């Protein structure tokens, strides 16, 4: 009479076969430990029926003055033009866009100061190294921040000091995260 219990670990011909149960269990455990990718929220538009929110930005001592002023002035102009609003989160941002932007900047530096074919001068090599070092300390910043309705597009990117970019982005998020999506936003500088 045939046995209906679990089969052994040997297949025909005496070769061992894997213990599928343990493999599947390990795969399930690994998948559970992986961070889950959040799907982007559907984009929204400015809802002028909602009350306007004033976003107060402070220039911290740790910010580089020039980069901060450029970023703030760009946001202020967008604010004055009535274009800023709270976008739905999580944002639909493609990291390949910023990666490609940084690569184009790097390639442009090398093409100008350290061209192929051994035509680079010592001064050109020194300038290329200086600019590449500066590039390592910058982010590809969205001038019109996507969390304020800006596009995730290369035409909206500029290099900005990494600390200033990330800290300002967090400062903005902390103030707007609980607002209804589409809330109109006005920006002002506070001392």
Outline the structure in words.
α3 runs antiparallel to α4. By secondary structure, the chain is α+β, with helices and mostly antiparallel strands. The termini are far apart. The model has no long low-confidence stretch (mean pLDDT 87). The chain has one domain. A two-stranded parallel ribbon has the order 1-4. It has five helices and four strands; from the N terminus they run αβαααββαβ.
- Evaluate the radius of gyration: 26 Å
The total domain count is: 1
Q: Tell how many strands the DSSP assignment holds.
A: 4
Determine the N-to-C terminus distance.
88 Å
The structural class is alpha+beta
How do the SSEs run, as a string of H and E? HEHHHEEHE
Largest beta-sheet characterization = 2 strands, parallel
Organism: Actinoplanes palleronii
Protein name: Endonuclease
Region (Disordered): 1-21
Question: Which characteristics define this entry?
Answer:
191 residues, alpha+beta, two-stranded parallel sheet, two-stranded antiparallel ribbon, 5 helices
